[in-house]
Design a protein that fits this description.
The protein is of the alpha+beta class. Helix content is 37%, strand content 19%. It has 5 domains: 59 residues, Helix hairpin bin (Helix Hairpins, Orthogonal Bundle), CATH 1.10.287; 231 residues, DNA ligase/mRNA capping enzyme (D-amino Acid Aminotransferase, Chain A, domain 1, 2-Layer Sandwich), CATH 3.30.470; 107 residues, Beta Barrel (OB fold (Dihydrolipoamide Acetyltransferase, E2P)), CATH 2.40.50; 147 residues, 5' to 3' exonuclease, C-terminal subdomain (DNA polymerase, domain 1); 71 residues, BRCT domain (Rossmann fold, 3-Layer(aba) Sandwich).
Length: 688
């Protein structure tokens, strides 16, 4: 049927838009939109072409890959570097599997599942074992020569030697993904931010900072000066063969990876071969939930048929293999409009700027606000109300504004200025303390600080008062029923019934929860006081050493600083907190209400792990996650969340985090299993 003019026009606009963004992404490493937004545009065009086949031709961006722009010398791929079709959910993955099964007359299939690394595709050519050329994917047919830069990447072999002494192939083309690890990206980004801070101090305009490891890695690989690339700590995973002459005959993809591994190429350790699509779906779900355990970014799972003969039988479309598909995870990075920048005041008076956004869906939830951290971050990122900004949400981390898309900035948009007075009714000055990045409201009576102190006191990590959330705290504050955390214990049924949303049952339940909190353990009470820098571990040590709140109040700074995990700085802050008359008035209210000051569970476990940091990853048989950490701390040890050179041992349970395990192996940290953990707890030493 004829294509309606409006449809033809829409298709032309979509093609132009895709070409523009392809050029930015592949040609300049400076995308203006997120991968998810680009996928949406490409999908719209694909759907139009499927409905109106007359629109489809060989030059459509649905039939070609990437950008044709080359900054470096062009390299024609002898075997095209195809892209992959995407599956956005389990249903689309299932549909792909059914098509593959039909094409193979429903024979059994094995699926090789690989993490989809968020990096830059690379082809490396070896002749008689010598690295002779490396090229980016480009448009799939022609890429860019980046040989000099690739030679600086330490994990990529420069000369191939087989362990068995057998001659290496006369031609071996290895394909994989260049990426920048999260750790390397943080170092790189911090260095760039320091450079920008210096530029701002000198009155110069700050330079743009890559928003994510992918952009940083791609830009690093395409540096004109290979010495610059060498400083960027790039990494590489090999995942495929291209042209091969003189290599052994392989029957499966798994065999090719084993062969590449034997030649010294890094192969991702999470590759897994599965015999059903249901198991593939489980694998995808597992890694979508665990993606932040890795030291590199992934945005999905690549699923390939393992049998090479079956691949040959299925073949290719014009742009992608029929025997593979990329299962994409929910996006964690999107573009949206920054409507305004506001400031919130925390319990210590800290003024935190945050972005008010045009709502956008990230990782399955709608985000309308995101943190901007502090005054310096707003200045260095140079985000302005009205900007199109990149918003990122990783795991359970609060959404963050990464930076502006400068190419989309409206003209004459003025820089945002940090306010000089607090938003509270008292109009207190906002002061940046020398040596700190934070700006604070210095008025102790600031109602915003008061409300946040009460919210913190009632939180799960402190006194855990169920039913006392932000909304209720604000209502109590508005009625002036609660002026500090001590007033919580004088609330009455009559007062609560005056609040909107409270009936007799809900009011009685809240009063019961407040009453129950009186018997919380001393460490919880200490955390609830909100003393700056006093966290759960130090509170636990204080409670165990002194035994009561009164003993801690009476202790000198010198006595406090002797406690493991406290030190001089925290000891001074604790002593100063209790020296404040208004704080001691709160303690008096606690005492009158019957709050327990000496509720300490004394451990009978041997103190054989004192001074030792033991990290736990995964689920250890016989212990909950909190139980394993408690078993360590009750013996005097520490249980931090990350591995470092000071880690005494890493305990590995079921489904461990890959990044912790890799880090431990790199640092030579002893690794123990569940059985070894029991021996460690018993003896205080790593079992041999």
């Amino acid at each position: 049927m004829p294509v309606p003019e409006r449809v033809s026009q829409t298709a032309s606009e979509l093609r132009a838009e895709i070409a523009y963004h392809n050029e930015l992404y592949h040609g300049k490493d400076s995308p203006e939109i997120s991968d998810a937004a680009f996928d949406e545009i490409l999908r719209k065009l694909t759907e139009l072409e499927a409905k109106y086949p007359e629109l489809l031709d060989d030059v459509s961006p649905t039939q070609i890959i990437g950008s044709g722009t080359t900054t470096f010398d062009p390299v024609t791929h002898r075997v095209p570097m195809t892209s992959l079709d995407n599956a956005m959910d389990a249903a689309e993955l299932q549909a792909w599997g059914e098509r593959a099964a039909k094409g193979l007359n429903n024979v059994a299939m094995q699926f090789a599942c690989e993490l989809k690394i968020d990096g830059l595709a690379l082809s490396i050519r070896y002749e008689n074992g010598e690295l002779v050329q490396a090229a980016t994917r480009g448009d799939g047919k022609v890429g860019e020569d980046v040989t000099a830069n690739v030679r600086t990447i330490g994990v990529i072999p420069k000369k191939l030697i087989t362990k068995s002494g057998v001659a290496v192939p006369s031609v071996l083309e290895v394909r994989g993904e260049v990426y920048m690890s999260i750790e390397a990206f943080k170092k790189f980004r911090e260095a760039k931010m320091r450079e920008n801070e210096k530029r701002v101090q000198e009155g110069k305009k700050p330079e743009s900072v890559p928003a994510n490891p992918r952009n940083a890695g791609a830009g690093s690989l395409r540096q004109k000066n290979a010495h610059v690339t060498a400083t960027r700590e790039l990494s590489f995973w090999a995942y495929q063969l291209g042209e091969v002459v003189g290599a052994p005959n392989f029957l499966t993809h798994t065999q090719t990876l084993d062969y590449l591994r034997s030649l010294g190429f890094p192969i991702n350790p999470e590759v897994k071969t599965l015999d059903s699509l249901s198991k593939v779906v489980d694998f995808c779900k597992q890694w979508e939930a665990s993606r932040h355990d890795l030291n590199y970014e992934i945005d999905g799972v690549v699923v390939k048929l393992d049998d090479l003969a079956q691949r040959e039988q299925l073949g290719f479309t014009s742009r992608a293999p029929r025997w593979a598909i990329a299962v994409k995870f929910a996006p964690e990075e999107r573009n949206t409009i920054l409507k305004n920048i506001s400031v919130s005041i925390g319990r210590t008076g800290r003024a935190t700027p945050f972005a008010v956004l045009e709502p956008v869906v990230l990782s399955g939830s709608t985000v309308s606000m995101a943190t901007l951290h502090n005054r310096e971050q707003v200045l260095l990122k140079d985000v302005r109300p009205g900007d199109t900004v990149v918003v990122r949400k990783a795991g359970d981390v609060i959404p963050e504004v990464v930076g502006p898309v400068l190419a989309l900035r409206p003209k004459n948009l003025k820089p945002w200025k940090f306010p000089t007075t607090c938003v509270c009714d008292l109009k207190s000055k906002l002061v940046q303390v020398e040596g700190e990045s934070d700006t604070r409201c210095v008025e102790p009576e600031c109602p915003f600080q008061r409300d946040q102190r009460i919210i913190h006191f009632a939180s799960r990590g402190a006194m855990d008062i169920e039913g006392l959330g932000e909304k209720t705290v604000f209502a109590l504050s508005d009625k002036n029923f609660v002026t500090d955390i001590g007033d919580l214990y004088s609330l009455t049924l009559e007062k609560l019934l005056q609040l909107d949303g409270f009936a007799e049952l809900s009011a009685k339940n809240l009063l019961m929860a407040i009453n129950d909190s009186k018997s919380r353990l001393l460490p919880k009470l200490l955390v609830g006081l909100g003393i700056k820098n006093l966290g759960p571990a130090a509170a636990e040590s204080l409670a165990r050493r002194f035994g009561s709140l009164d003993a801690i109040i009476a202790a000198t700074p010198e006595q406090l600083s002797e406690i493991d995990g406290v030190g001089e700085v925290i000891a001074t802050k604790i002593n100063a907190w209790f020296a404040d008359k208004s704080h001691m008035a709160i303690i008096k209210k606690f005492r009158a209400a019957g709050v327990e000051f000496g509720n300490v569970v004394v451990s009978t476990a041997p103190q054989n792990l004192v001074g030792k940091a033991i990290v736990v990853t995964g689920t250890v048989e016989g212990f909950s996650r909190e139980g394993a950490q408690e078993a360590i701390t009750s013996r005097g040890g520490k249980s931090p969340g990350s591995v470092s050179a000071k880690t005494f041992a890493l305990v590995v349970g079921d489904e461990p985090g890959a990044s912790k395990l890799t880090k431990a192996q790199e640092l030579g940290v002893p690794i123990v299993d569940a059985a070894g953990f029991l021996k460690l707890l018993e003896s205080g030493e790593v079992p041999s």
